[in-house]
């Protein structure tokens, strides 16, 4: 969450329009640059439409973590980039801070996408266009550079060190992720589906219609009483501690044997974005909840959690806020202390996430040291919290 509340080899489906090459400049502010060039410029000019079908297949899409079909809006932008590359006969190049489009292609595309955005008269359409473009550029810019499972540079892949673990069947995590956090190397929410699997910890990208539809279909099926958000919302009357929310032993107790069926699964939403973005994400959840249930207040769970290991690399705005994986650790740990839930191995599941978090920290720290960068950062209020 940022507490608001998953080693695979690359297996791309040929043929692909773009081939990737990674060029490393001198270590410094520019960081890595990822350049994607057409396989054959001459054939590209012969075929103005870019003629390679399925530049991003649903199989490739799902290897990055999502469970949804390849989003139509993202596919449209990928196709538009493909056509534009042919039209300009220019390289698609990503680099600089945030891995943005660079060079002549980037300058032209920036004007084009801004004009498209401004021409949209509906705020929802603008928002979905923004999300889809973020995802499309991150997908193309990460191909051949990041591991599709752990989202680290291939030379830093940690997948072989992470041990999968089963999550108690009565719990399902939803990683409601801001598009700017998708494929970020220091994101920690990805650890949850890497450990527990995508059916127990499911990625839902903020503003991607296909993802949000899957998530809300599950919430409607489960009912409002089975859905809550991990978020320290001090102003909400529905903000509860784990003890207050689940500590009472009743027939509706989440540990009750009468709730073994799938309909009684507890759905926990973890907002996976910066603290600045989390307010908009929570508002979108509440707005949708109101349209579904007639009440915009989602129950929020506040944890008695402290700093996680990731504070060393990504300090939080305050000590009551922590990263996504640490929020999941805190929730599982607190639930394991409840007598009626003590036999479900939740403490061991929390330990599995904590071990993976330490592995991620070691991988990121090692990379920074190799690049001659500091392994600590100054605290600032605008920091992104994985």
Automatic annotation (TrEMBL):
Source organism, top-level taxon: Eukaryota
Keywords, ordered alphabetically: S-adenosyl-L-methionine, Transferase, tRNA processing
Catalytic activity: a uridine in tRNA + S-adenosyl-L-methionine = a 3-[(3S)-3-amino-3-carboxypropyl]uridine in tRNA + S-methyl-5'-thioadenosine + H(+)
GO MF, one example: tRNA-uridine aminocarboxypropyltransferase activity
InterPro entries per UniProt: DTW, DTWD2/TAPT
GO biological process assignments: tRNA processing
EC number(s) recorded for this UniProt protein: 2.5.1.25
Keyword Transferase tagged: yes
Ranges for domain DTW: 143-373
Name listed for the protein in its UniProt record: tRNA-uridine aminocarboxypropyltransferase
Upper taxonomic lineage: Eukaryota, Viridiplantae, Streptophyta, Embryophyta, Tracheophyta
